[in-house]
Specification:
- The chain has 165 residues and is an alpha+beta fold.
- It has one domain (2-164).
- Helices cover 64% and strands 15% of the residues.
- The chain has four helices and four strands; from the N terminus they run αββααββα.
- A hairpin with a 2-residue loop joins β3 (122-130) and β4 (133-134).
Length: 165
């Protein structure tokens, strides 16, 4: 019984982290939507702007030019990913680095799904640039997904290293 309780406590922790990421993402997006018109921005530093951008596609605006079907495709993909990630969190609740990575990905994925459901696009606002070249704008959810992916790679590298020892 204690083991089951520990797994549920672990799952609760990871879901709470994902929720925190989701809330932070939505908070900043609401601020951007209330403060900027589409395309407006503020120069923050010589390499960073806050700007309001709408992305109907996926990463790097992949499929942004499609006729609208991509909205529901990405909503469905995000929903399926969320279910799989929750199952993985429940199954591996004791693997902290792995679960941290999955919680980051979950919070970010749901954050972008919420945008697609509410607006039909994802709100991006972080714009980094150098020498006139702009990296595609992104948001807190994208940052969490990227961090989660990096942590998954680290987790796997550490797992392989342990297995060779």
């Amino acid at each position: 019984m204690a083991k089951g309780k520990k797994l549920n406590t672990g799952l609760t922790l990871w879901l709470a982290l994902a929720l925190l990421i989701l809330l932070a993402d939505q908070f900043f997006k609401v601020l951007i939507l209330g403060s900027y018109q589409l395309g407006e921005g503020t120069l923050v530093t010589s390499f960073f702007n806050i700007v309001r951008v709408h992305n109907t596609g996926a990463a790097f605006s992949f499929l942004a030019g499609a006729s609208g079907w991509q909205r529901w495709f990405f909503v469905g993909l995000g929903a399926v990913a969320a279910v799989v990630i929750v199952w993985m969190l429940k199954s591996h609740a004791g693997q902290r680095l792995f679960c941290l990575a999955m919680a980051c990905i979950l919070g970010g994925a749901i954050g972008n799904v919420v945008d697609r459901l509410l607006y039909g696009y994802v709100v991006d606002f972080l714009d980094f640039h150098y020498a006139g070249i702009h990296f595609p704008a992104f948001n807190v959810a994208d940052s969490a997904i990227t961090l989660g992916a990096g942590l998954l790679i680290l987790d796997e590298l550490l797992r392989v290293r342990r297995s060779k020892s």
